[in-house]
Amino acid sequence: MFISSPLPFIAAYIDDLSQAIKQYDPNLKLTRIQKSWLAFCIMAIFVTRTLCWAKFERACLGKSSPAALSWMFRRAPIPWQILLTASTIALIKRYGITRGRLAIDETDK
Description:
Layout: H1 8-24, H2 32-48, H3 53-59, H4 66-75, H5 80-95
Helix pairs in contact: 1-2, 1-5, 3-4
């Protein structure tokens, strides 16, 4: 496996997500590094079919260690509290959804 750059639909999603975060709160934004990291993680999940830092390291041919990859997740000032909301808004806009119900199911927790 080899990850060098995100697929076009992942890059477009990250751009839409960044715009949705700005619309939600003009004081918040994703930095270029945060956008790159999120794009890499989505691409790695897509390629490896798992959420595992060690597999991500192998997928990028060892260019990043699991500690470096997980640091951004644990320490970066990404606006996690609004990421789900912004992501939902971005997807609704992208696909032109005008009606429906959105339910979050956490019964497995």
